[in-house]
Amino acid sequence: MTEYDEQAQVDELQKLLRKAQAEAARNKRRTDDIVGAIYQAAYEAAKASGRGATVKRPALDKRRKGHEVALVHATDWQLGKRTASYNIAVADRRIAEFTDKVIERWTANFPTVLSNRQYTSTVNEKNYQRIVGLIDDAVDLGATKRQVIPAGEQLPDAGARKIPPTVLTGVKAGMKIEEDEVFGPVLTVYPYRDLGEAIDKINSASHPLTLYWVGKDNENLAWVADNTRSGSISGNDFALHLISHGLPFGGVGRSGMGNYHGRFGFETFSHARAVTVSTLPISFAEMMVAPFTDRDVKLTDGQMAMFRRFLKGSIRKNAKR
């Protein structure tokens, strides 16, 4: 077994620290340019689930007009291919504009629902009734409902277990949809006045599996990333983070534990075991039992002083962020 070399370990740690600081500095420069809208979605994948929210920036960059419909692309994925839970936050003065675009897109994408094989049915009767009940409860308590119901179709349809694409606004505390994950074709849209309010809304729910950002890469995205928790962050596209096996995929808190993909999956299901053999001139075991010598007291006091300085330094750094 390799003999423990204290100075070599210190040198290696300092090298790693310098590398990490340099990487952080590069990231900071890259994120100095960022925003548009966050778009947080928690969806079912790999047996993990979460809740999410999206924030759309009040002023849109016309050169990035494609971002305007990115959320709608994502909700198409929900309606046609897989279930998910979406909570969207939009600048309050643009709620009507945003919901109009969503309805317009859904109307074009789903000219029929009942006979459309690309529009999924709810998995079973129990969940069909649950989702319909969540919509009805929200409307009864004051929410506004907009749905895409093709001409000649009666929806929702219990026999086919199909629920029309639905947008809810005016959702508030006390409604059941605020407390449950929908996993169905329902988009809840929340207004916000500033980015801080949107972040507070995101943090009021459990941590999502993925937080989606639609917009430029600048300090606002850095602010969102620093002040929210999620399994991952994906910008300007849907589920892009799932493609690369060089990136970890997994949740945090209620949305999951650990990561998979490539080496990350191996490490999640492995245990890294520490093995140490001391050649130090002091014994920590002896220092922990009486009688205590002056040297023991001085070494312990020194260790505590170093810990306190480290803790204060960490607090100051976090405060500056």
Average pLDDT? 75
Relative strand content = 5-15%
Q: H/E order of the elements?
A: HEEHEHHEEEHEHEHHH
Unreliable segments (pLDDT under 50, ≥5 consecutive)? Answer: 28-83
- What is the C-alpha radius of gyration, as a whole number of Å? 26 Å
Q: What spatial form do the alpha-carbon principal axes imply? A: elongated
Helices, by number, come to 9
Structural class: alpha/beta
**Total beta strands:** 8
Report on the biggest sheet. 8 strands, mixed
Q: What is the first-to-last residue Cα distance?
A: 43 Å
Provide the helix percentage. 25-40%
Assembly level:
single chain
Mind explaining what this structure looks like?
This protein has 321 residues and is of the alpha/beta class. The chain contains nine helices and eight strands. The protein has helices at 6-30, 70-80, 95-109, 125-140, 195-203, 219-227, 262-268, 284-287, 294-320, and strands at 34-43, 54-56, 84-91, 144-147, 166-169, 186-192, 210-217, 233-235. Strand 7, helix 6 (219-227) and strand 8 (233-235) form a beta-alpha-beta unit.
List the helices and strands and how they pair.
Blueprint: H1 6-30, E1 34-43, E2 54-56, H2 70-80, E3 84-91, H3 95-109, H4 125-140, E4 144-147, E5 166-169, E6 186-192, H5 195-203, E7 210-217, H6 219-227, E8 233-235, H7 262-268, H8 284-287, H9 294-320
Describe this structure in a few short sentences.
The chain is of the alpha/beta class and 321 residues long.
Can you give keywords for this protein?
alpha/beta; 9 helices; 8 strands; 321 residues; eight-stranded mixed beta sheet
